User: What shape does this take?
Amino acid sequence: MEIIRLKGVTKNYPWGGERLKEYGKSSADIMAESWELSVHKDGISIVDNGNYKGMDLKEYLKNNSEVLGSKRDLNIMIKYIDARSSLSIQVHPDDEYALIVEQDLGKTEMWYIMESLEGSYIYYGVNREVSTDELRERIENNTILEVLNKVETKKGDYFLIEAGTIHAIGAGNIICEIQQNSNLTYRLYDFNRRDKFGNLRELHIDKALDVVKTVPSIKYERDAEMSNDHVICSCEYFEVEHYTSEKELVLTAEADYQVINFLAGEGMIGDLPYKKGDTFLVPANYGSYKITGKAEFLITISYN
Assistant: This one.
C-alpha cells in the first residue's frame, strides 16, 4: 500500500472567487469549490501518483479495498471553498429524514477557516428560539437574517454544523469543509438573487422547515494558540485534528485510514512532496510515516 495524493474536482459556482489558485487549484477563473476527497457521483477526485495515477478515487478503492481498513465505504467528503460572495441561507437534513424523503444520506459538516478577510462572517444557527411559522413569515418578508446568529470569522476558527442547523458562509472566507458523503442541501433564502437568465434560484422551504433546529445549538471554537496535535472536532461521523510542524513529525496510521489536508507549507510526506493545498490519503494499517518541512495541516479520521 502507498500514500495517495489526490487531485480535487473544481466547481465553478457564481459566488466563487480566484483564491483557490493560491492552493494549487487550476481551472476556470472562478473556482467556488475543490472537492479534494470525494467518491460522490456529482464529483469524484482523482488519484495523482503511483501506479493508479489518473484513476478516479471510487474505482481505485474498488480495486484496493484494504485502504479503508474495516470501513466498507468512504463516507466522508472534504472540500476547499472560496466564497467571494455570500452563499444562500441553507440547512441540511439528518440521515433519518434524508433516507426517507431523498433516498440519500443527510449532512453534518465541519468548517475550518483557512483564511478570512477583515469583516468576514458566517451565519450559524438562530440567535433565539423561533417557530417554523415565524421563519416562514420572515423568509417571505426578507427579515430572516434578523433571527440568525452572525459570527465574525478569523483564521483558525472551526465550527461543527450539525444537520438541522441553519447556516451560510459569508463573503471573504476560504474554508476547509469536512462532511458526510452527501450533496443534499435545502435553501431557505437566497437574498432574492437571480441567475443569468433572470430567474430566482429554487428554494426548498417546506423541506427545510421540516428539518430545521429552531433553538440555538452553537458548537464552535477559536484556536487562538493554533496548538499542535489538537482535536478540533469530534462527532459521530469523523474526528479532525490540527497540526503544525516546524521541521519533522512522525505519525502513525493504525486501524483507520487518514486524510491529510496541507493548509500551508511544503516538504515531504513519506517519499512524496507536498505543498500548500495538497490532499493525501494514508491507508489504514499503513504504520509510521514522516512529515518533514514547516507546515500546517489537518488530519481527518472517519468513524463510519
